[in-house]
Amino acid sequence: MRLGEGPQMHMSHHSILRAALLAGASLSVAAAASAQTAAETTAPAEPQGEAIVVTGIRASLASAAKLKRDSVLIVDSISAEDVGKLPDVSIADSLARLPGVTAQRLEGRDQRLSIRGLGPDFSTTLLNGREQVTVGDNRGVEYDQYPSEFFQNVNVYKSADAALIAAGISGTVDLRMLRPLDKKDRVMAVSLRGQMNGMDKLNPDGKRYGYRASATYIDQFADDTLGLSLGFSASQTPSQNERFNSWGYPSAPDGTLIIGGAKPYVQSNLLKRYGAVGTLEWQPSDDFHSTFDVLASHFEEEQRLRGIEFPLVWGTDVGVSDVTVENGFVTAATFSNVYGVQRNDYNKRKADMISLGWNNDIRLNDALKLNVDASWSRAKRTDFLLETYSGTGYLRSGVPDTVRVERQSNGLFHIAPTLDYTDTGIISLTDPNGWGYNGTTAVVQAGFLNRPKFIDDMKSFRANLVGDISGSLFSQWEIGGNYSRRKKTSAYTSYFLCPPGGTDCTIAGGTPGSVAVPNEALLGSNVSLDYLGVPAMLTLNPLYLYDNVLDAVYDNRPGSLVRDNVVKEDVFTGYAKLSMDGELGGKPLKGAIGVQVIHSRQASTGTISNFANGVVTILPVSGKDSYTNVLPSAQISVELEPSFFVKLGAAQTMVRPRLDQERINQEFKYNLSYVGIGSSDPQFSPFKSEGGNIFLRPYQSTNIDLSLEKYFRGGGYVSVSGFFKNLTDFVDPNNNIAYDFSAVLPTLPADQRDAILADGSYIGLVKSPANTGKGTIMGVEATASLPFKLFSPALDGFGIFASGSYTHSEVEYGSNPTESVTLPGLSKWVASGTAYFEKAGFQARVSYRYRSSFLGEVAGLSAAPTFRTAKAEGILDAQIGYEFQSGPLQGLSILLQGKNLTDQPFVTYQNDDPRQVIDYQRYGRDYYLGLTYKF
What we know:
- This protein is mostly beta strands.
- Among the domains are: 40-182, Ferric Hydroxamate Uptake Protein, Chain A, domain 1; 190-549, no CATH class.
- 6% of the residues lie in helices and 56% in strands.
- The protein has a 35-stranded mixed β-sheet that branches. The protein has a 5-stranded mixed β-sheet with strand order 3-8-9-6-7. Strands 16-17-20-21 form a 4-stranded antiparallel β-sheet, with no helix packed on it.
- Strand 24 and strand 25 form a beta hairpin.
- The N and C termini lie far apart (67 Å).
- Residues 69-170 form the TonB-dependent receptor plug domain.
- Residues 1-35 form the signal peptide.
- It is found in: Cell outer membrane.
- Keywords: Cell outer membrane, Membrane, Receptor, Signal.
- InterPro entries: Beta-barrel_TonB_sf, Plug_dom, Plug_dom_sf, TonB_rcpt_bac.
C-alpha cells in the first residue's frame, strides 16, 4: 500500500471519481454550508427582565407564558426558577417537557432533541441568538456541553422570521444567559448537590456517587450602568448501564428466526464537567448598550465496559440443538462449539468549548437604531476508544463452550455458559475467532484502538439597521446582513493491538497467537453479568494491557485511510423585514413580513482511494461549490378577543446536510469474490465506491403554522397549534448510482479483466448521499398550563403543565420512491405532564413524559452512527423541596429529586418486530439531594 499525490482540479462529482480511477488525480470539490450567528438584540422580540420575580415553578411558568403571549412567532420556552436553576437536572430534560419536543437518552442522559418529529439534524441551536459549534460528530448539539446553571431561559421557536438567522426546519433552540442589568440588586448564590445511582457500581473501577456544585455572582456598578455576572460550575456525574446487544436474527433453514450472536456488557460511566461564564453589560445612556459574553466548558467522560461476545448461529461451525420455537421465533436453544470473546474496554472523551460574543446597540436618532454583533465559538474533542479481547485460544484453537440461550419476558436472552470465564488457566489475550484483518492478510487482533479528533470553529459578524415607521400599520423596517465561516476538521487514527513479539501483528511476521494474562492486569474482583445469567468474567485493566503488554500497529486499511476530512462553509445572509403593530378591523394585530437571501460557499478537502496495478493508492482531493437560496416569511398575531390570540406563520426554511455527508472522501473497493460469477447486476460488481457528496444542497421546507392561544387573567393558558411542512431536496443517505468502472480494468491481471469484460460486471455502484427525497410532515400540539387557583382560591399553589402532540410524516427517497421512510427521532405520539404544589416555601412536583416508538441514532460497528427502531418509553421524575423564607436560614433551600423512577430501559429492535431486540440498556434510577444558598 502506498500514498500518491497528483495535481488538483475542479469537476463534477462523477468526474472526480473517474479522474481518480484513471490517473490517481487529486481534485477540488466543495461544500458550503454554515450557519450564521444572530445578534441577540435582533432575534425575534423576546421580553427579558420581566417584572415577575422568579422564585419557583409558578413564576417560571408565568414568565414562559408571558414570552409566548407577547411573541409574534410560535414559541415555547422554559425559564429559570431562580438564579442558576432551570427546572430539571439538565437543559434537555426541561426541553423534553415542551409540546412537540422529545429527547433521546444516551448513556442514561437526555442528549439528542427532536422537534415536531424531526431529529437534531433538522434544528439549530443558538446561544444568545448566535449559532454554535458542537462537540458532536455533526451539527446536532449535545446539550451536555452546556451547564444548565448558566441560563435564564431557553426558547424553542417553531416558526421562522427573516431576522432569525440560521433557523432550522423543525425549530430553533435559543439558549439565553442572564443579563446583570436586568437585576436590581447584587445576587450571590452557591449550590451543592449530591447524586447516587439506584444501581450499585457495575465495574470495580466505576463510581456510584457524584456531585454538582455551582456559584453565581451578579452585581451592578456606576449608578447601575455597568453590570457584571459570573458563574462557575463543576460536576462529576456517574451512571451505570446493563447492556445487551444482539448481532441480529437470521432465518434458519426452516424459516424460523434465530439469534445470530449476543454481546452483553456492564458499563460504568463518569462524566466530569467544569464550566465558567461571564457577562459584562454596559449601558451609559439610552443611546448605547453593549454586552460581552463568554462561556467556556470542559468535560471528560470515562466509560468502562466489560462483557462477553458470543458468536451463536453466525459463529463458525457452531452446532444448534434442543430448540424451542414460538410463532416462527426461536425462544430457546443450546449452541455448541462457541468461542466467546471477552471484552475489557475503556473509552475516554475530552472536549473543550469556548464561545465569545460582543453585541452593541446604538441609537442613531429617535427613529433609527444600529446593531453590530461579532462572535466566535470553537469546540475541540478527542476520543480514546480502547478494546481488548481474551478467549481460550487464537482462531478457535482453544476450549469451546456450550451455551444455553433462553428468551425472557422482557425481550432479553438468558445466557448460561459452561466454561469458567475467570479461569486464567484457559483464558489468554488473543483473537479468539481470528477476526483480525488488515485489508490484505489476517492479523492477531487482541485489541483495537480508535483515536478520532474533531475541531469545530465558527466566526460570525452581523449588522442591521432598524427604523421606526409612523402613521401606518407597519411600525418598523429592518435590514441587515450576517457573515459566518465554519470549519469542521475530522481526523481519525486507529491501531491493531496484538500479542508482543512480531513486527506487524501477522502470524507471518512472527506475532504469537496469544499471550498469558499478566497478574498485574487483574482487578481485585470479577464483574458479574448475572442479570443475563453469566455468573462472572475475567476483569482486567485495559489501560495496563495497552501500556505494558500489547503491541500497537497502525491500521492502514484503505477504509481507515480515507476518513480524514475538512468541511468549510462561508455563508452570506442578507435580509429585509417589515414589522406590523396596530389594529385591523378593530382587533389588535402584530406581525412581520420579510425575506432572507443566503449565498453559500462550501468546500471540502480529504482523500479518495484508487486501485492501480493491484495496489490501493490514497490520493488527496479537494472541491468546492456555491449556491444561493431565497427564503420568504410572514407571520401575524391577532387578538380576536381579550387574551385570545390567533397566530399564523408561513415561511420557506432550510437546514444544511450533516457535515459527514458533505465530506468529499470516497473509498474505492474491489471484491475479488465477485469476479467471474456471471452477473451484470451492479450490486454484484467487483467494483464499488462509497463516500460523501460535496455538491449536496440544504434540505428545503415550505412551512405553514397555526396557533390558537387563550390566556387567563389569574395566570395560565391553553393552546392548540397545527403545522404542515412540505419537504424537498431531502437527503437520501443510501443513494446509489450505477457507474462504469471500466477505467480500472487495465490495472487488473488478464484473467480477472477478461472475466469482468465477459459478464459486464464492470458496471458497479457509487454510494453517496443526494438530494433526491421529498415528503410531508404534519401534526397538532396541545398545551395546558393551569394554576388551580383559577378554579378555587382553596387550591392556590396547585397546578399542572401538560402537553401532547401527534405527528404524521410521509417521506420517500429517490432511490425507493414507492416506500415511505421513517424519520430519525420521530415519535407519532408524544405527551408530558407535570403536577405541582408550591406555597410558603414548600414545593413538590411529579413529571411524566411518554413517547411512542421512534428511529433512534445509536453507535454501531466501530462507533459509527447507525439508526434502529426504539421502543416506546415512559419516564417518571419527581422532586420535593423547601426554601426558608425567614429567620437565620433565610435564603437556604433544600431539594430532593428522583429521575427515571420507572426504571425505564432504552430498547431498540429491527424489522418492525419487537421480538428482534438489538439493544437493551438499563440505566436504573438516579437520586439527588441539593442545597442552595442565596444571599
